[in-house]
Write a structure and sequence with these properties.
Strand order of the largest sheet: 1-4
Helix content: 55-70%
Order of helices and strands: EHHEEEHHH
Shape: rod-shaped
Number of helices: 5
Oligomer: single chain
Radius of gyration: 36 Å
Strand content: 5-15%
Number of domains: 2
Largest sheet: 2 strands, parallel
């Protein structure tokens, strides 16, 4: 009976075929040797002991003259997931790769451990800038402002400039990640193995 071997259980078809061929040759040689042992012309030794799938993939043949040979007799079958599930699994793996790259790129711009403090320090400058912008709009409309807000200090302006730079870089990272995720979503089983992510440059 032909032995059925799941593709997931073997390294690849060629390696498995070579292993089966080698085992069949060894068993044929061992069988011939045991004939000599029975005749009292040789010393016995144990037969080869391969992996179960290799052993099961070889069939014993006995010719009319009693000669025993061993020949490969197996079939490799695809025991993997259905195509739809396989595609989802491969897409999921690529999504995770892109997510990891995105996190690394974001941390290169501003490490995650620094972000909360940066937001806390930035908040007063943002509030002050919004107030100044509101006062400027009132002046442009001819409205008199009785209590004027002091201009931004150099430190406050520096914080705002740095925040603008960080936001610009983070937006670029977000866009690049979104573009790659969209590309992955359009992949098929025929194209997915050839897709490679492109690095983040910020």
């Amino acid at each position: 009976m032909t032995h059925t071997v799941g593709k997931s259980r073997i390294p690849n078809a060629k390696v498995f075929a070579d292993q089966v061929d080698a085992y069949a040759a060894e068993m044929t040689q061992w069988s011939a040797h045991m004939v000599e042992v029975t005749a009292g012309n040789a010393q016995a030794y144990p037969p080869p002991n391969p992996a179960p799938d290799i052993a099961a993939a070889v069939r014993r043949n006995v010719a009319k003259d009693g000669t025993v040979t061993f020949v490969p007799d197996y079939e490799i079958v695809d025991d993997g997931p259905p195509p739809e599930l396989l595609l989802l699994q491969k897409k999921g793996a690529l999504f995770n790769v892109v997510a990891g790259m995105e996190r690394m790129a974001g941390n290169a711009v501003l490490p995650i451990g620094k972000r909360r403090l940066q937001n806390i320090l930035l908040r007063p400058a943002l509030i002050k800038k919004a107030t100044l912008d509101g006062e400027a709009a009132q002046r442009a409309a001819g409205i008199e402002i009785k209590v004027k807000t002091k201009p931004l200090t150099d430190d406050e302006q520096s914080l705002l400039d740095e925040a603008d730079s960080i936001k610009s870089k983070m937006d670029a990272i977000d866009l690049h990640a979104a573009e790659m995720l969209s590309e992955i979503e359009d992949l098929t089983l025929d194209t997915i193995d050839g897709w490679k992510p492109t690095p983040f440059t910020v």
